[in-house]
Amino acid sequence: MAKAKLGSTEMLERLIGFDTTSHLSNLELISFVQNYLEGYGISSELIYDETKKKANLYATIGPKGIPGVVLSGHTDVVPVEGQKWDSDPFAMIEKNNLLYGRGTSDMKGFIAVALAKLPEMLDAGLKAPFHFALSYDEEVGCIGARGIADHIAHQEITPRLCIVGEPTSMKPITGHKGVADYDCRIHGKECHSSLAPYGVNAVEYGAELIAHIKSVARRMQKEGPFNQEFDPPCTTVHVGTVKGGTALNIVPNLCEFELEIRSIPEQNPEEIVDEIRDYAWRHLEPLMKDIDPQTGITIQETVGVPGFNIANDHPAAVFVQSLSGANRAEKVSFGTEAGLFHAAGVPTVVCGPGNIEQAHRPNEFIALEQLEKCEHFLSRLISAFTKENPY
Ligand SMILES: [Zn+2]
Question: Which of 1, 239, 289, 365 fits a 20 to 30 Å CA distance from 322?
């Protein structure tokens, strides 16, 4: 394929045209990017999921064997079903300097600008490489990026910086809470309600466990640990759904609920869930098993997004802040892939065009001005990496 020269807007239009809703394949978009890069002589590594219907793309531009910078973006978007759009979500349109389409802000905008900057990267005489890291399935639990982080962790040279281009209005974000979700199941013993003491009421044991979870949440809210950079400044624990019981005259044999822990970096959610498990196993299960040894409680992790936190005065954070022109870095509440890259040993900052408020909504848009800001940001980043010591 010949070199295709596409501006950020044209590139974004192409990317929006691929319906990459998380439950669908992203391979058409990935092969478009792969061909585009190939046109410039850049080869890509694809990391597939087990169905081979989705893939991450990892490509290196510039000298190898030197710590470079990762530009990270997820290729999947959230569904449009049930949303009222005024135009086709997968055909980008421009109106009053705003570009409308699913994924314009979250987060094909950043990917488009990064790809459009490829010729500039190649002409600049980079002293350290740029890596494009495009993932699948971010919106359903940061699944794909785990493969990329693993790939990076297994390389001899660790990049010196990762920029995750989620929409932050080009403000540097240096931390967010981790999210850990759990499925809780109480298996009781069914019987007629007139014989209640001979059964094991799953709903009642579920209620006791939820009451205990609430007491843990209250304690953390009161006693911490605290990190005042976050709002709220403590780890939060919450039960979002409960199911159980079929009729009033039946002792229910099953109660299910979902538990979510959003943790500050100082706290490991595993310790909290262990405390909850301990209560279930030591205080509730013996009472249940006294009546029927088949009964019991399981608490299983479902999806989780690790948190991340980098000091605002870390050289990587100071550097990204200087490129962005922002006067300070912030912590936010929404989760990203940053924690995975950070855990792989790459200092990571989240900074990208568009506003998170537009993400996941009907008539999602990005302002042209945001794409331009991102272009300037990346130009400064490219020119910094033409020096022996970018920062
Ligand atoms: Zn996103």
Answer: 365
Cα–Cα distance between 308 and 175 in angstroms, integer? Answer: 5
CATH 3.40.630.10 assigned to 8-176+307-384: yes
CATH entry 3.40.640.10 includes domain 178-305: no
Q: How far apart are CA 73 and CA 114, in angstroms?
A: 10
pTM for the model: 0.87
Question: What are the sequence ranges of the domains in the chain?
Answer: 8-176+307-384, 178-305
Among the options 138, 139, 260, 364, which is catalytic?
138
H or E element that contains 33: helix 27-39
Q: What's the 223 CA to ligand 1 centre distance in angstroms?
A: 33
Which residues, by Cβ under 5 Å, contact ligand 1, an ion?
106-107, 166
Residues present in the chain in total: 391
What are the structure tokens assigned to 334, written together?
A: 């929404």
Distance CA 132, CA 3 (A): 18
pLDDT tens, residue by residue, 170-179: 999 999 999 9
Q: Are the CB atoms for 55 and 115 separated by under 8 Å?
A: no
The count of other CB atoms within 10 Å of the CB of residue 87 is 12
d(CA 74, ligand 1 centre) in Å: 7
Q: Cβ contacts of residue 301 below 8 Å, gap of 6+? A: 180, 181, 182, 273
Q: Do domains 8-176+307-384 and 178-305 have the same CATH topology?
A: no
CA gap 340, 150 in Å, rounded: 9
Q: Does the annotation mark 123 as catalytic?
A: no
- In the chain, what percentage of residues exceed pLDDT 70? 99
What stretches of 12-84 adopt beta strand conformation (E)? 44-48, 55-61, 69-74
pLDDT in tens, 52-103: 999 999 999 999 999 999 999 999 999 999 999 999 999 999 999 999 999 9
**Whether the Cβ atoms of residue 170 and residue 105 lie closer than 8 Å to each other:** no
Residue type at 266? E
Residue 152: CB atoms within 10 Å:
21
